[in-house]
Design brief:
Blueprint: H1 3-12, E1 14-17, E2 21-25, H2 26-32, H3 37-40, E3 42-46, H4 57-72, E4 76-81, H5 87-100, H6 104-114, H7 124-137, H8 155-160
Parallel strand pairs: 2-4, 3-4
Antiparallel strand pairs: 1-2
Helix pairs in contact: 4-7, 5-6, 5-7
């Protein structure tokens, strides 16, 4: 792999978990990485449609479950928002907190150690805290889907897989 391209990616993506989970702004990502996305094998999870001024628990929850499933299967994930400062870092903090059994604030402190510009705004904080609570107490199937308390797997894995 071309060392110049690798260095460019390392500068554009804020890798919070080295080469596993990172954040980036939409401008940087689209200008520099979209043509390289498949060759580097990472998945982009967009946070552009998440409104920081509203509680959008289901949108953020679905992105978190998607990211957790990808990471569990050894995939690389980059969260993208407009500036790479608030929404993407909020979701990264949420996942750091969840996977390490931390509070959301502790997860955010871990993100701040890796990302120079981090400032989670508005209701994104409350949304992330609620999604973290939901993740910690929800039962999920090994595929990442929600399941009922009495079930051993989700509907898809039980009947369609």
């Amino acid at each position: 792999m071309n060392q110049v391209i690798i260095r460019r990616i390392e500068k554009i993506v804020n890798w919070i978990i080295q080469n596993k989970m990172g954040t980036a702004s939409v401008d940087e990502l689209t200008r520099n990485l979209v043509s390289c996305q498949h060759s580097f094998g990472f998945h982009v999870i967009s946070m552009l449609d998440v409104d920081e001024e509203k509680l959008q628990i289901e949108k953020v929850y679905s992105r978190a479950v998607q990211a957790l499933s990808l990471l569990k299967h050894g995939e690389r994930v980059v969260f993208m928002c407009q500036a790479g400062i608030s929404r993407s870092n909020g979701l990264a903090a949420l996942l750091i907190a969840y996977t390490n059994n931390l509070t959301w604030e502790e997860g955010l402190e871990e993100v701040k150690k890796k990302v120079r510009r981090t400032h989670v705004l508005g209701n994104m904080i409350d949304t992330c805290k609620e999604v973290l609570r939901k993740l910690k107490y929800a039962r999920t199937c090994s595929c990442g889907s929600e399941m009922d308390d009495n079930d051993d797997s989700c509907f898809y894995c039980t009947y369609l897989a």
